[in-house]
């Protein structure tokens, strides 16, 4: 493993994971591997409530030498009721006062939340304007997971990575190819982009390669269009690896061109269900193998990518940006 000396030498931040338990498995592994952590509070139905998610981060931060920061969010439970926006902003302020470094919105906006007439509420709905205005005015970064991988709208046989194939086979209720009554992939992205057109000074991070993971060309066009925006790589490195199996130089040029706007994240979840050693092993494997993809030149494989692919062999200065500096630039209140 030629990349290991470099891996151990440079500082690293996992800029997108989910600590949903009190136990210290992630913190212990981070200390071993030289990572600082950023846990993302998210309004997922099967996650602990927002306050509990914050408390997990605060407790770990006080009991371990390795730092963990968090991004807060707000509930849409009372969306549409009088005073809802004030309640959401108050929830955001509470998170910020506890030390949050940004705010997250999730794909339930656009894919779950509906108005009284049964219409899907998209990211550009006017009800969210006071929230976007508050974030823009106060210089608070917004991390947004809007839409899904393009594979979500494709038939199984056309999906590009096997992790998506496995997931949507097992969860057909989330496979949008089977649910044409939902907004389309392009409608999801168009709603997001209308927000960015209206809030040009908003610091915006498109989670999961801004749901443009399938094409570095499309991702590049989006980044060119919105200079205040960055992307994170959480759970989408495999899509870059897939593209590298066919056009490695194009992927390398994309990363090099936008080296100041890309944040590494694993999207690892610890909810206490799996054994601590399993979580630590899975996290170590993911961190090392994904770092190797960016750092090493040799041929590699990944469990969810169908064909071998070459490593990108990026310069140290680029690796330091992706794995450390860019997170600090987009989330300036990080304490890593």
Tell me the number of structural domains: 1
User: Might you state the CATH topology name?
Assistant: TIM Barrel
Largest sheet: 5 strands, parallel
Task: Give the rounded overall mean pLDDT.
Answer: 96
Structure description:
The protein has helices spanning 4-9, 25-33, 50-63, 84-97, 108-111, 129-138, 162-170, 185-198, 207-210, 216-225, 237-244, 248-257, 276-295, 316-330, and strands spanning 12-19, 35-40, 68-71, 103-105, 142-144, 204-206, 229-232, 262-263, 269-270, 299-300, 309-310. With 336 residues, the protein is an alpha/beta fold. It is built from 14 helices and 11 strands. It has one domain: Alpha-Beta Barrel (TIM Barrel), CATH 3.20.20. Strands 4-5-6-7-8 form a 5-stranded parallel beta sheet. Strands 3-2-1-9 form a 4-stranded parallel beta sheet, sandwiched between helices. A two-stranded antiparallel ribbon has the order 10-11. The radius of gyration is 19 Å and the shape is globular.
SSE topology:
Blueprint lengths: L3 H6 L2 E8 L5 H9 L1 E6 L9 H14 L4 E4 L12 H14 L5 E3 L2 H4 L17 H10 L3 E3 L17 H9 L14 H14 L5 E3 H4 L5 H10 L3 E4 L4 H8 L3 H10 L4 E2 L5 E2 L5 H20 L3 E2 L8 E2 L5 H15 L6
Parallel strand pairs: 1-2, 1-9, 2-3, 4-5, 5-6, 6-7, 7-8
Antiparallel strand pairs: 10-11
